[in-house]
Every structure is written in structure tokens, then in C-alpha cells.
Design goal:
Blueprint: H1 3-8, E1 14-18, E2 23-28, E3 50-54, H2 55-67, H3 81-121, H4 124-150
Antiparallel strand pairs: 1-2, 2-3
Length: 151
């Protein structure tokens, strides 16, 4: 019995394999060209039943499949997700502490600025100048009244 007939009867239509040169070969086990093969025959890369992809092409294909929803729960980190989560949590905590520290510093600066503004507006020198101006205005007004009454 030819190998192709055995393969076409399997449930899995496609089989993927990666070689040591980072090339992925995807075999369509149900392809018509395989029906005439015997068990000891080799399948060439140029066979219409074989699709060869570079590592980058394969990764791009998987990412696109995940993006379009063809693959569920895909993880492209390549590492331990718990370790990544711990790293991100530690970094997030550090950033939150830094944000709190900067917010406290900003609040202190705003309080200091408002104190300076209040003190500059109500300083003793300012009040004395304001009193002097009021006295000068009174004197000028009295002088004007005196001049008007003489006429």
C-alpha cells in the first residue's frame, strides 16, 4: 500500500517541522502528489505538497494568525510569564512610588509658592507703601478741595 494513501486517511492534514537551518517545512499529507509515494521515498522541497518557510516568515504567519483570532491565547514572550509578571509588577511598584514622591514634591512646591505669594502681597513693606499712597491721595484731594473753595 502506498504511503500517500495512509497519509490521506489521517486526521491531521498538515504537519510542520523545523530543521537545523531554521527552515520550516509544512507538509500537506492529503495532497494528491503523495498518493503515489512508497514508504522509502523522499519528498522533495519542490513538491507541491511541501511549503518551505524561513523562521521569520513562520513567526510572521503565527503572529498574524494570533492577531486575526485564528490562534487563541498565543504567547510571544518566549519566556516564563510568571517571571515577566513579577518583573513588570516590580517595575510598576517602583514607578508608582516615584510618582507618589514626585506628587508630594509638587504639592510642597505649590504650597511654598502660595506662601511666597501671600507673603509678598501682604508684607510689611507693601502695607507701608499702600498706606503712604493713601495718605498722598488724601493730601492731594485736600489740596484740590482747598483750591476749589478759594475760587
Amino acid at each position: 500500500m502506498p504511503l500517500g494513501n495512509i497519509l490521506s486517511g489521517t486526521e491531521q492534514q498538515y504537519v510542520a517541522n523545523k530543521d537545523d537551518k531554521e527552515t520550516w517545512r509544512i507538509l500537506n499529507t492529503w495532497h494528491e502528489d503523495l498518493k503515489h509515494l512508497d514508504a522509502d521515498d523522499e519528498i522533495d522541497d519542490d513538491s507541491p505538497a511541501v511549503l518551505c518557510l524561513s523562521e521569520g516568515q513562520f513567526i510572521a504567519l503565527i503572529k498574524e494568525a494570533a492577531t486575526t483570532g485564528q490562534i487563541q491565547n498565543a504567547n510571544f514572550g518566549g519566556g516564563d510569564t510568571e517571571e515577566l509578571e513579577r518583573e513588570f509588577t516590580a517595575e510598576l511598584d517602583m514607578k508608582q512610588r516615584e510618582t507618589e514622591r514626585l506628587q508630594e514634591k509638587l504639592d510642597n512646591l505649590q504650597n511654598a509658592t502660595s506662601e511666597v505669594m501671600e507673603n509678598s502681597l501682604t508684607s510689611e513693606e507693601y502695607r507701608l507703601k499702600e498706606k503712604a499712597m493713601a495718605s498722598i491721595l488724601k493730601l492731594v484731594s485736600m489740596q484740590d478741595m482747598t483750591n476749589l473753595t478759594r475760587e
